[in-house]
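Hi everyone, sorry if this is the wrong subforum. Our group has a chain we'd like a structural model of before ordering constructs, and none of us has done structure prediction before. Sequence below.
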Amino acid sequence: LLLREELLLQDGGTHLHFELICCLLYVISPIPAWCNTIMTECISISLLVINLYYIIKQISNPSLKIAILNCFITIVLVFLRPTFIILLVFLPILWFALFIKSRNKHFCHSLLLSLVPLLLFCGYSLEYKKQYGKFSTTISYECNSIFNLKRSKLWDPSCLEDPEEIEVCDFIDTYWDGAYRSIYNWANTRKNIIVIDKMCKTMIDHHKQDYTYYRIKKSILALDSHLSTCTVSKRNSPFFFMYATTSLLTFHIGFIILVFLLGCLIQTIMFMKGHGISVTYLFLNLLGLGYSLGIMYAATDSFGRLILPAYPLFILTLGFVITDSLLLIKGQSRQS
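Answer:
Right subforum, don't worry. Here is the predicted structure as tokens:
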């Protein structure tokens, strides 16, 4: 509610009824069902909303205190879910653009502080490399590669020549049960990470065309899936009514990405027509689009769950698409 109020203050309250409808969609969103599950989804969604509020507040009324809060929350988000590394790219660009435009020293503070999460992330990745031999933060990429190769039926031990790769491959085949956790726990050692990475790259390179086709097909099929409302264990719990209700209110991933694309397109049209462009709305559109496409590219499954943190961005962008479309029809422009 505070985030919507902050945006409405910037916007002069245009088309308030549409803004309130979108706010209501967030309140009755699938998120409440996740708040009863101890996973990073419920925490990351809430923290992202808080961070967005302070980002928008910093744009409209910049101060050093808010810049520090943005920095701290961004650090927590990035280490909570690695998918939020997109903030390490978008935030410096945002603050740099605003500083060039206004020469406000507080935007310079935000720019410098936005580099702190980036430095911490790089420092952690370097320590990870010292321990495991690869510049990264998690074994998830290697585990995802194993799952993609298995599910695409492109798991091909015959293309391996390195004895270590063959040994690891045989071990995985022997104990493979399709469970992500079992592979994750076993693979998380220095020797295994390096060998698994090389082994998967060898198989992928050997079947590059088929593997690329599988990933593209997987991403396209994922567009038809819905946002997840809660984990399976909660469906038989006292919160089943909440699960059943929010299930009716979820959106297709394809529709979510379409809204982000429409938001960027409308902003471009408004700029070309001389109506001006909103740095705030363009930032939120691109952030949501980048996060969603990143999930579609990197994930192997559970797209509906992994893309959940983009839901607040989607609701905001949906409001922008509605109001900006009406402004375009009337030949008007937003104030900011």
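For your construct planning: The mean pLDDT is 78. The longest helix spans residues 105-132.
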